[in-house]
């Protein structure tokens, strides 16, 4: 065949802001019919900000912010960055955590100012008023994380990020190429559905633990689908590697980029459609 055409395709890709691991990658795009999109950092900006703070009666808001902020300061997660920055802004300088543990897809826990603190989806049971505050925040399309210490949930922090300006157009372009978009996230269902609606996606798979994202890809493949996956996080790496075509956001983590076949340098989802269009065209000149 003509390796030259593949080389040309690779060079054109670089101009469009697509880094292609090897010319052979273009082959796998041909039969792709489904595109799984990670939510946070892929469809949304991933730059979250703290929006609301809710505390139960008898709990000091400033203390809750200090303890949660101190723990989240040690994490790189978009939710953690929002909490740490918001807490510092509202409560001043944060204490330093004495111990810290990251629980992937769930949150963080550790020791701050002599208390055992947890932030995220880490409480088995929460008081009714905390549950209500959390549900209200989620209905508003926010990601709500529960904060507590010494075994008791004491408040809720609501964070939100914005859908990227280009995401709705990107989904439309992917559909025009005959692909079915699927939104995949570890975040809660209400938030996921709000984002899906904003960009025009019908199929939503939410509340998926990081280690289970790869199973979602495998399940779609077992249904006979040929799957492209677009993601940015450490938690997307296994799914990106397993997908028939893995596309990483260049703005994302090294783990995601290394696991992928293609990197979208600027983190613009529209370029995912460009990539598929380019490789189909390149292959057409060969066949
Ligand atoms: P996504 O799949 O959208 O990229 P993740 O799997 O990374 O999301 O996280 C899923 C959920 O777990 C978050 O929406 C949040 O509720 C919770 N979570 C994860 N990390 C943290 C953290 N550091 N602090 C608080 N909550 C967290
Ligand atoms: Mg992500």
UniProtKB/TrEMBL annotation:
Subcellular location, record wording: Cell membrane
Protein's UniProt keywords contain Mitochondrion: no
Signal peptide: none
Keywords from the named record: ATP-binding, Cell membrane, Membrane, Metal-binding, Nucleotide-binding, Translocase, Transmembrane, Transmembrane helix
Principal cellular location given in the protein's record: membrane
Family stated for the protein in its record: Belongs to the cation transport ATPase (P-type) (TC 3.A.3) family. Type IB subfamily.
Name assigned to this protein: Cu+-exporting ATPase
Organism: Streptomyces rishiriensis
Residues of the full protein shown: 431 to 717 of 766
